[in-house]
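Let us practice reading a record.
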Amino acid sequence: MLYISQTGCQWRYLPESFGPWTRVWSQFRRWSRNGTWACALTVLHTAARRANGRAEARPSMVVIDTHLARGASSGGATFHDRGGPYGRTKGAKRVVAVDVTGLPLGALVVPASTHENRASDLMLEHLADQDVTGRLELVLVDRGVTAAAGRNLGRAHGVEVRRVGWEDKQPVFRPIRHAWRVEVAHGRLGRARRLAKSFENTTASATGWLQIACVATTLRHLSAVAEGPPTVRIAE
């Protein structure tokens, strides 16, 4: 599954060394529906925080943001809907939450027409279901979330919801403290070719592939930490 996520190959072209593609597909479908990928991401995220020297396994601050993925034309009915500026893009919204390390701890996919208010609420509910909100105090969201919705989210989930973003359009890129980390996370996830577009027909399948990409990102981070900094050799 990590292979398909990274290469974007179709199920029928899965190398035989991985076993019959129908069996792998069935396992992917099962794990996507029963929340296995979400649980795996939670466990790996905890390990990554420990590897980064964090004393606490759970974060006190998260950043939530969405990314619009254009839907691929598959010829059949999908969960895709129109969204984005003026509703011109038919596809899906990928909702990702990261902590101060910049590593994803939650990932969901919803139709593109889903408002930022609802997407943020769904993510906070998802994080609560994964039992990662025990220490959560601050949630950063962009200005797509309305001020009233931010206050309601804060009361509903017992956290401070802070809207961040520049009031006016900036002439050059100016990162916002902590908030830029979720943009980097979206960029890294976009390197997985399965996520080049939204190819899936169901939210469960789309969420599964997004969570697999998050798992792969976290595994690469853990591997890099275990290897340590690169050795610099001085030519004699």
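A brief commentary: Residues 203-227 form the longest helix (25 residues).
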